UniProtKB/TrEMBL annotation:
It comes from the Bacteria. It holds the Pfam family AlkZ-like. This is Winged helix DNA-binding domain-containing protein. One of its GO terms (molecular function) is DNA binding. InterPro entries: AlkZ-like. Keywords: DNA-binding.
Length: 394
């Protein structure tokens, strides 16, 4: 492209986030599928995050739980599976083949090699034995339709066998074949998580055979995934893209070129937008507030987050592993945190008062009231707890 790349300032980046992540007034989605399409992926490590992330973006959030359960477990228009960075996400069903080819194959190869290596160090059976158990497990799952690891072990008792991991190290532990193998099969795209045993907040999932999808060429899949993500999250720097995808920098650069991504300038330096997305974007007419759950894909969307999350808030809002807790948003930036107390009350605290006065307080209070209505009698505790969330919930 000729000329100097256009500068995209913080205000415009926040405007893009507001519209494309369906957080601004009037931007709400009609269905969970529309939310997932807009975000590319919903973070699925904490089951509650999927539902709360959808509810925060629906125009009519009252039916969030049944609508999301329908999409996940009846219509199968949303699929919970391993994706970028060896992490569990919920994707639109039409994107699963792209995700598997672009990110899953490389992760799966490393995961299988690691499992075989760990078992060999522990003196456990070899790769041939593991393949036999795998075939038997998949056959049992095909017969049952959906099953827990314990149920599958009734059909394939070798799943109960254990081996010592990292013997002699400070993090030594005992692994069960079922836990490691089923996770591996998930990364390889052979199984997916099905309906949980308990409520929608439960992390005790059944397993099901993964839906069949066409095999795609890796480079083409990477280009397709990057185009989708830039349309949702651009502008993004090369560091953002490498972190979010988990790819090598050479893969990121090849996909950027193949996608025809356009260079722009942001405060961090060179960034990229989709080929047809270079025009300025105006912000919402009205200010907006949001209460987003722990690990929400907007809060975790970029590696470089200073433009929407002040660095001084990190110690209060993140755990030691870099997982973000529940966040309070005002006009495109994180200003504080929220939590649910044992009696169901939604409480929050604003840590950054810049531009967040009485109007913000009133808007956040309305969001909290709506969230309490969505939750009803359900109590939600984030899987990865952060300092301020724990303090507020106490």
């Amino acid at each position: 492209m000729g000329g100097k790349p256009r500068y995209v300032g913080v205000a415009e980046r926040r405007a893009r986030l507001a519209w494309r992540h369906r957080l601004a007034g009037g931007a709400g989605a009609a269905t969970p599928e529309e939310v997932a399409q807009s975000l590319v992926a919903l973070h699925g490590t904490d089951p509650a995050t999927v539902y709360l992330g959808v509810g925060a973006r629906l125009a009519e959030p009252g039916g969030t739980v049944p609508a999301t359960e329908r999409a996940l477990y009846e219509d199968r228009t949303l699929v919970r599976m391993h994706g970028m960075r060896h992490t569990v996400f919920v994707f639109p069903a039409g994107l699963t083949a792209v995700v598997h080819a672009s990110t899953g194959l490389a992760v799966a190869a490393r995961a299988r090699a690691a499992l075989i290596k760990d078992m060999a160090k522990a003196g456990a059976p070899d790769a041939t034995w593991l393949e036999e158990v795998e075939e038997s497990t998949l056959a049992a799952l095909a017969r049952r339709g959906q099953a827990t690891a314990a149920e599958l072990a009734q059909d394939e008792p070798r799943l109960r066998e254990q081996f010592v991991y990292a013997a002699g190290k400070s993090y030594e532990g005992v692994h069960t074949v079922s836990s490691r193998l089923l996770r591996l099969l998930g990364v390889e795209g052979k199984v997916v998580r099905g309906r949980p045993l308990g409520s929608w907040t439960s992390s005790q999932f059944r397993w099901a055979l993964a839906p069949e999808h066409p095999g795609l060429e890796v480079a083409a899949a990477q280009t397709g995934l990057l185009r989708r993500w830039l349309a949702s999250c651009g502008p993004a720097t090369e560091a953002d893209l490498k972190w979010w995808t988990g790819w090598r920098v050479t893969d990121v650069r090849r996909a950027l070129a193949a996608a025809g991504a356009r260079e722009v300038r942001v405060d961090e330096g060179t960034a990229y937008v989709a080929e047809d997305d270079v025009d300025p974007v105006a912000g919402p007419a009205e200010p907006w507030a949001a209460l987003l759950p722990a690990l929400d894909p907007t809060a975790m969307g970029w590696q470089q987050r200073d433009w929407y999350l002040p660095p001084e808030l990190w110690p209060s809002l993140f755990d030691r592993s870099g997982n973000v807790g529940p966040t309070v948003w005002w006009n495109g930036r994180v200003v504080g945190a929220w939590a649910q107390r044992p009696d169901g009350e939604i409480v929050w605290r604003i840590l950054d008062r810049e531009g967040a006065g009485a109007e913000a307080d009133a808007a956040i209070a309305r969001q909290a009231e709506g969230l309490r209505g969505l939750l009803g009698p359900t109590r939600v505790t984030p899987r990865f707890r952060t300092p301020l969330e724990k303090e507020l919930a106490a």
